[in-house]
Design goal:
The protein folds into two domains: 141 residues, no CATH class; 136 residues, Rossmann fold (3-Layer(aba) Sandwich), CATH 3.40.50. The protein contains 14 helices and seven strands. The strands form two sheets. Strands 2, 3, 4, 5 and 6 form a five-stranded parallel beta sheet that branches.
Length: 314
């Protein structure tokens, strides 16, 4: 335990108190039982020991109620669910965007065949990113589940040559999640794709996209079309009115919950510098994939310190 946390506990610093709903105890018991069942049945790719370690860090009725609310709102995509979304994206929305009016398997067949489809699949990765970044991972998954021909894939720094030397006309950027959109803008500008925009269609194809990111890219990169299999919006934020109308039962408002959360993460030092207490873009999501967790989700779920064991893998 760090000295800062010891001092907080010794001096009695704690999150502000809130009046809990009458059913709070039963709600906590029910959510905890359901969470364990989801893990036991393989619907959450989370180790049981990880859930237990994370849950034990919440002490007392208020903290345990808040933890149960987080679990209740968790949007978790297993490997199987994520790959199903990837298949759906390439066989439906993305296929329709590239080959309008064609049959659903046109794109899937094009990226498998030997004839050059005049299209390249490109992972979203910046120069300083590690190879474990989600973009390359998604590309590997795509190659495995759809048998995509590796010849029709390339790295971002190869795109200009593919366009100029091989006449590529469609570039599809693959990724797992579009959050606030800032990271993709940085990626697009770093590799100077806008310098090769004439006659080229740029399509950003994350499996899941947030509406805030879609709107941001429409403003910052109007030449880029965004196509996803699943879309989230501000109603999916943990502190949205809709969430706390159901969870708070007239006792805990979204403002109460957010203030309590800020006190808690400040006390526990769960505040990553780049993401902030609400996650990047202040999206306050509770989204996780089996392979990683977007930094747009609440850090209380994924941020690790000497004194805090996260529930999800970052």
């Amino acid at each position: 335990m760090s000295l800062a946390l010891q001092n907080n506990l010794i001096t009695g610093r704690r999150a502000r108190q809130v009046k809990l709903p009458d059913n709070a105890t039963l709600f906590v018991q029910s959510v905890n039982a359901d969470s364990k069942k989801l893990i036991e049945h393989g619907l959450w790719d989370i180790r049981m020991s990880r859930l237990e370690s994370w849950s034990k860090q919440f002490i007392g009725p208020e903290e345990q109620f808040f933890a149960a609310c987080l679990l209740d709102q968790l949007i978790f995509r297993t490997q199987h669910q994520f790959e199903a979304g990837l298949r759906s994206l390439f066989r439906s929305n993305l296929n329709g965007e590239i080959f309008s009016g064609s049959q659903d398997l046109h794109l899937s067949q094009a990226i498998v065949g030997r004839a050059d489809p005049v299209l390249r699949l490109v992972p979203v990765i910046c120069e300083t990113d590690p190879p474990t970044k989600s973009g390359p991972l998604v590309l590997r998954r795509l190659q495995r589940i759809l048998q995509a021909n590796q010849k029709w894939m390339c790295w971002p720094w190869q795109v200009a040559n593919e366009i100029n030397d091989k006449g590529i006309r469609v570039v599809v950027f693959v990724d797992d999640f579009l959050g606030s959109g800032g990271q993709f803008v940085k990626f697009f500008k770093q590799w100077q794709f806008d310098e090769n925009a004439d006659g080229v269609r740029y399509i950003y194809a994350p499996v899941v996209a947030h509406q805030q990111g879609i709107e941001h890219l429409a403003k910052e990169l109007p030449t880029v079309c965004v196509v996803s299999a699943e879309t989230l919006d501000h109603s999916h934020a943990f502190f949205s009115d809709a969430v706390w109308e159901r969870l708070g039962r007239g006792c805990v408002t979204p403002i109460d919950a957010k203030e309590w959360y800020h006190d808690f993460v400040t006390q526990r030092s769960i505040q990553p510098r780049q993401a902030g207490p609400l996650g990047c873009g202040d999206l306050a999501l509770t989204l996780g994939f089996s392979h990683s967790t977007p930094n747009n989700s609440l850090p209380i779920l994924w941020y690790e310190t000497d004194d805090w064991q996260p529930l999800l893998e970052r």
